[in-house]
Amino acid sequence: MKAVHIEKPGTIALVNMPVPKPKTGEALLKIKYCGICGSDAATFTGNQPFTTYPRIPGHEFSAEIVEIGANDRDLKQGMLVTAVPYFNCGVCYACRRGRTNCCEQNETMGVQRDGSFAEYIVMPVNKIVDGKGLPADILALIEPFSISRHAVTRGRIQKGDNVLVIGAGPIGMFAMLAAKEKGARVYIADLVEGRLELAKRLGADGTINTGKEDMSASVKEITAGGGMDVCIEAAGLPQTFLACIEQACFGGQIILIGNGKKETTFNHSLLLKKELDVFGSRNSRNDFEPLIELVARGAVDIKPLITDVFPFTSVIEAFRKVTANDGTSAKVLVSFEG
């Protein structure tokens, strides 16, 4: 089979590898679609702080079950599925307390262990999730949606809250949709007008183009001077974290999803003065099934987020497009079909 191989930052190639053989408790999957996550692009460029090399990237995918043994989850050969791509150790303090999302030794596919950008992969049966009839391209979006939904549920967003999402990439867009699901009024800020237009089509209550508008003035106008009840940081930059502190109301919340390598310097007394709650968010696990059900019943339409689909033979071109994204692309998928 062929697989994407990142030898070191900046060095990417399609390589030949043996088809993996499933062990007891594992299934062989044939990949249908893979999404290129921001962390995959950062692995390619060397800006992902958790990646080890060499590495096969990828953790957003849909697949067909090719080979599976008897199991108690009604999973069968031929089913279209996705899978939870996080592997916790089970023995660290966080795991023993049931906080497997923040396992001290967590390994995520495509980051600390090889991922899904290959024609075939094996997965533990207990991590496979039935796609419930969703199309293969949509099913590949469930993992990034789950990241944002988990982050949103880390906070205490209430119906009618004013929520500001800073960063209108796919994770920010999914965070906007998850906050809308809770009944919040959600605004999204970004430098790229095309992303903001897509956010409007997806249901954002308003947008702020930070290249043309003053964010503080816009927030004051939206909230009658009170500030945002919740600010969600989805860009991973020092300035966007500081903007969240500034735009949050007194007694407000900040939810951090964006992942970056740059340090941030700030006066922590601002957190004290406003008595802000700050929530970090890493992975998700229990959000896959409810999101599949939500999308399957038509409660939310995420297909408009798919802006580019590349054939697997052009996967390196797809990676280069993501890393050089001028803002015209939202979710870039690679198709293994055909």
Q: Which features characterize this protein?
A:
338 residues, alpha/beta, Quinone Oxidoreductase, Chain A, domain 1, Rossmann fold, 2 domains, 11 helices, 28% helix, 27% strand
Note down, in words, how this protein is organized.
The protein is α/β, with parallel strands linked by helices and 338 residues long. It folds into two domains: 2-141 and 302-335, Medium-chain alcohol dehydrogenases, catalytic domain (Quinone Oxidoreductase, Chain A, domain 1), CATH 3.90.180; 148-280, Rossmann fold (3-Layer(aba) Sandwich), CATH 3.40.50. Helices cover 28% and strands 27% of the residues. The chain has eleven helices and 17 strands. It has helices at residues 38-45, 93-96, 136-139, 142-154, 170-181, 193-202, 215-223, 238-247, 269-274, 288-296, 315-323; strands at 2-8, 11-16, 26-35, 60-67, 80-83, 86-87, 107-108, 120-124, 128-130, 162-166, 185-190, 206-209, 228-233, 248-256, 277-280, 306-311, 331-335. The strands form four sheets. Strands 3, 4, 5, 8, 9, 16 and 17 form a seven-stranded mixed β-sheet that branches. The protein has a six-stranded parallel β-sheet with strand order 12-11-10-13-14-15, with helices on both faces. The protein has a two-stranded antiparallel sheet with strand order 1-2. α4 packs across α5 (170-181). The radius of gyration is 20 Å and the shape is globular.
